[in-house]
Design goal:
The complex is a heterodimer of chains A (137) and B (483). In chain A, helix 2 (41-50) packs parallel to helix 3. Chain A has 137 residues and is of the alpha/beta class. Chain A is globular. Chain A is 42% helix and 17% strand. The chains are: A alpha/beta (137), B alpha/beta (483).
Chain lengths: 137, 483
Amino acid sequence: MAHDDGGKAVILIAERDRSVRELQLFFLNNAGFAVEFADDGQGALDRARLDPPLLLITEILIPKIDGLTLCRLVRGDANLAGMPVIVFSILAAAARANDAGAAAFLRKPLVESTFLAAINGAMMTIPNAKRSLVGAR
Amino acid sequence: MTTPLTIPPVPMIADRRHDGRAPRVDTTERLKSGNREADYILGGGFPANSINIVMGHPGSGKTIFAEQLIFDNAGDDRPILYFTTLSEPLAKVVRYLQGFDFFDETKLGTQVIFEDVGAELAKNGPDALIPLLRQAITTLSPKVIVIDSFKAVHDLATSVAGRRRMVYEMTALLTAYGTTAFLLGEYTEEDILLYPEFAVADGIVEMSRRRLGNRDERYFRVYKLRGSRYLEGAHAFRITGAGLDIYPRLVSPRIPEGYEPANERISTGVVGLDAMLDGGVWRGTTTLLAGPSGAGKTTIGLQFALEGARQGEPSLYMNFQENPSQLIRTIRNLGADPDEAQAQGLDLVYASPVELQIDSIIVDMFRRIQQGRVRRLVIDALGDLASAATDPQRLHDYLYALVQHFAVSGITSVLNFETVGNTIAGNGMQNAMSYLSDNVLLLTVDGAERTRRALRVLKTRGSAHDTRVREVEISATGVAVLG
């Protein structure tokens, strides 16, 4: 699992909206995570395969590979089986996200409490992740 | 079959779909405005996580509306942030806020946070607003943000490009974060095309004020509400100690599915008149009772209402000329016991048309109709109601909507109308009311040495009637048709 130089668990985010990125970065850093961003679905997939992050958060509306397809590809990759995916989108697509294998779906805009709660919930599905969750907080 | 009384707390929103289908269910999450009537006009409130502009001249009620909203929404998980900028110092805002009923000091500083950012903006320019907002979002997580005045921030910008950049960045930030924003400003209607914030706003409401003689009329209007149905037009309001008292514009009701006119005659309470009408008036119909001064309109109206009370039907008598004490005396003169009649359900209401807007009179009337489950109604007289209306088209729309509301609710009404002379012919309201009403009765007064009063049925919908001119007399028991 990827960690930054300081030993913090990395959360990978596929998102293009600058304002959303700023807020995600702030709240996740504040919660003790390191954050990396990808501009599109292909970039996120490549980055995840290179060194799997703790979890992946993706918008649906991203170039090259959309967020739902990205989620399906991740779920179909045995090396990424332990990495939960959270779909965080402007679209009302909870059912489609669930069908694609997402651990959680969140509708934009971002609200800190529900955003972090969804991440905590997704992390509970990761084996041996509870300690890193507590540590991350 | 009589349709059950289903008048809502305020007159219903017009359903502009004419295909008979029920309105689509609206699942939009809403933020209540703290004002029941405003929420009704807004179709349930402002869409949550939206950006809204509240515009109006100084003194129009913008700040009070926003303050009512924030105190109503304060109280649970996330605080509410109120930025004052360069329009009014914070001390002044809070000073006058304390006079309103909705003010709750215990919420200040925790659930409602006021912050004066005027000095920061004056020093660093409008772009300083973005980091201020970002800091507020990341440290307070506010669920509502009010910027009062945003126009003042905007006017600090030295270039059009600078204004647009600031508005764009603010919009991007407020859209990314889950908060509902209200931008207050002293904008005019012309500004809508000039200021970029209007293009990005999800909702725009306006408070306006119009001078009318010695009094002011205030209006609340929704210009835009993305993704929502709302009640169009200007809605009158007053500012009271409880905040804004808004009177939603009356519009015609949607005819309920399965609506059928009632198939039941009810007595007018006037001896001989029921026979002229083939057994009384149909329940749920509207009767225009026209005639010159002194013809007996008020007496007949009271007899109709008293008969309703005797029959156990809550009856509302709205009048604009005689106060309740005068009316009680008149009721005694008719040989009835006012206390007994009121105990049986007679509600006597006096409203001064000089002091009130037609909207407030109508909303008050509907509240009484709902609270008292009114079945009979008398308006004495339409001319007074007209004097409370400043716009003839508005009056016509009101009267039409009123008649429709009464019909679908099974309320039988008598609308008195004073004519000049013994004719109903003419232009304007009397013509409009003649065709809107189900029944039209004309009282006349003649005679040189002895006053002779007569009554004629000019029209009844769905009924036979006596076509003769019948003499009437007013005695100690009221108006009676002779012979």
